[in-house]
Amino acid sequence: MGKKRKNPERVEHYDEAPPKKRPLTNPLPEGVHHYQDIEEVPWDIQKYWHQGYSIFSKYDDGIWMTDDSWYEVTHESVANTIAQHMAEAAPEGKSIIFDIMCGVGGNTIAFALSGKWKRVYAIEKDAATLACAKHNAEIYGVADRITWFQGDCFEILGLDESKKGNTVEALKAIAGSYGVIFASPPWGGPGYREAEVFDLEAMQPYPFSHLYESLQKLTPNVVLYLPRTSDLRQIAKVVGEDKKTQIVHYCTKGSSRALCAYLGDWGSLRLGDL
Ligand SMILES: C[S@@+](CC[C@H](N)C(=O)[O-])C[C@H]1O[C@@H](n2cnc3c(N)ncnc32)[C@H](O)[C@@H]1O
Questions:
Q1: Does the residue 252 lie in any domain?
Q2: What's the pLDDT tens digit per position in 93-136?
Q3: Which InterPro entries does the protein's record reference (predicted)?
Q4: Cα(12) to centroid of ligand 1, in Å?
């Protein structure tokens, strides 16, 4: 991606008229940006600017981001591959997917685009981030397949005993009967890259065991998106070595970006063209 927000490759190869540009809502909600030039981008996230079209190929159509989401978002090709794997390996009878920490929508949009799920439920606690996800889903034409919730996923799904008043009972029931859960939790900021082996129990603010034990109360069928250097021995210890867990690395340009732990009754994943 060059300095200016223009993708020559996209423009040159388009036979049809250029995509309709979304008028920018002016002003955007607080904390939401659609940067159009690297000079607008805060210095500490400028290194992510050049990955813009890898993050969202439709960036130029007016994608909204928060500043944190530049390093938190799941890149489009990875999100699409995960969505494809979850669709192929979904346990029998499961037709609803929950993206419980949906960020600006990288995975949520891919799940909706996959066509596998009757409904995508997406939860995000940060209002500005959720505004981005909703807007981005519109750009990808899938907003009508997604139901959004703003709030703490543990409270909304009835997993926080101290905040039972915030539980959405219908959602909890759907999750238990028909749902699978995907969670892309915070990894504690960009510093996770420094760890040779990432300590999943030191993951902030939700250690692996907390995520696993909480979500198991709803469904065993959970996929967690974790750092590529995650300590797999910790997963085996928490899950139990007798239980099947599939670990899949998701790569771009030949190196792993992250891994997913497929916990529960997922079919065997047919891997090949990652
Ligand atoms: C790594 S990001 C998710 C990125 C997302 N997969 C995407 O592609 O945009 C984690 C998100 O979880 C949200 N989050 C953290 N704790 C949460 C909670 N308890 N309930 C709901 N959302 C939460 C954060 O605000 C952040 O946006």
A1: yes
A2: 999 999 999 999 999 999 999 999 999 999 999 999 999 999 99
A3: RNA_cap_Gua-N2-MeTrfase, SAM-dependent_MTases_sf
A4: 36
Best CA proximity match to 7, nearest among 73, 65, 51: 51
Q: With a cut of 60, say whether residue 154 has pLDDT above it.
A: yes
- Per-residue pLDDT band for 254 (boundaries 50, 70, 90) equals confident
Hey, which of 32, 101, 107, 149 would you mutate to test ligand 1's pocket, going by the most ligand atoms within 8 Å of its Cβ? 101
Is the beta carbon of 124 within 6 A of some atom in ligand 1?
yes
Ligand 1: nearest atom to the Cα of 79? 8
Residue 33 belongs to a domain: no
This prediction's pTM: 0.91
CB 106 within 8 A of CB 120: no
**Is residue 160 in contact with ligand 1, taking CB distance under 6 Å?**
no
Domain assignment present for residue 58? The answer is no
Cβ 130 under 6 angstroms from ligand 1: no
- Could you give the number of structural domains in the chain? 1
Q: Let me know if residue 197 belongs to a domain.
A: yes
Asked if omega into 185 is within 30° of 0 (cis), the reply is: no
The enclosing domain of 86 has a CATH number of 3.40.50.150
User: Quick one: CA dihedral 273, 271, 249, 71, positive or negative?
Assistant: positive
